[in-house]
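Slide 14.
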Amino acid sequence: MSANDLASRRGRFGFGAQRVLLTAALISIVAAIGSLFVGDLSLGRATIADALFHHDDRLAAHVVVLDWRLPRAVADLLVGSALGMAGAIMQATTRNPLASPSIMGLSAGASLASLLLTVACPTAGRFELLVASVAGAAGAAVLVYTLASMSRTGVTPIRLALTGVAVSSIGAAIGNGITIYYNIGQDMLLWFARGSEGVQWPDLLVAAPLILAGLFAGVALAPSINALGLGEQVAVGLGLSIGTTRFLASGVVLLLAGAAVALTGPIGFIGLLAPHLARGLVGLDYRAVIPNAALVGAMLLMLADIGARLATTPYKAPVPVGVVTALLGVPFFLYLANRRSVRSQGGRL
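Slide 15: predicted structure.
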């Protein structure tokens, strides 16, 4: 990378990036507040204010707001942030614009591991399921990279993405077989499709600390990941330990993706969309991209969940948030997969 490219990359990190950060945060907060009004039960501002500041467990409206809608909004913000940051770190460290937790098989691995633990140990608690999700994401990542690297031409972005999709499909097929055999299909279908619906405070008390730890760790690693994105030779020249940086970045991604799946089930394409939107807004400096991708991810998932609820209310049939994110993400994935730069330049960002 030339000196001009390096200066350009570093120069975009400043007031513009901070403005995007604040704008995304503001939209996410406003959307989260707005989500308290959306649902089958229509509630006014006075009722919601009373539920938040003068809570009464004897009133059904107060219970709906404080015990159902508010934790759902918090879960959307946390999971969207986790998936957005995980996707940004994956795309930076692999230099693969198609990388994301859902496309690379991490979400499917986490889901399958959670299902296997549920079958093997029905009494497993929230923390055990979270650990299983992280381990499943790690196993899927290793499997995808191993299979993709078996080709004579080596690992390419398209091959990694296709391998990830194949591993995800196999994991889903195995999961479907297990749910049918053990007659737990209805329970697992609700878990896979629910998104943040049904998330309550005990769930957040387990997952939120780990997601927040992963988010802080990702921001702390951003300067090293930014140097790694300049190329290995430049990174070594700057004194960066490439192996250590990749190891720590992988740990952060697995923690974020595993905790997100354990909390809401697999939600696709947020980890693909958010980093690209963030790069389009703030440039290529990953010190700015990584935190902005987290906030853009939170904003996208919050708005997608509101859209799913608005679609659910008039038809009285639940619309999974994954349907909304897929409607946004699939066309964008196809666009990226067919871009000449992805095919011919090996995924150079």
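Speaker note: Confidence is low (pLDDT under 50) at residues 6-12, 344-349.
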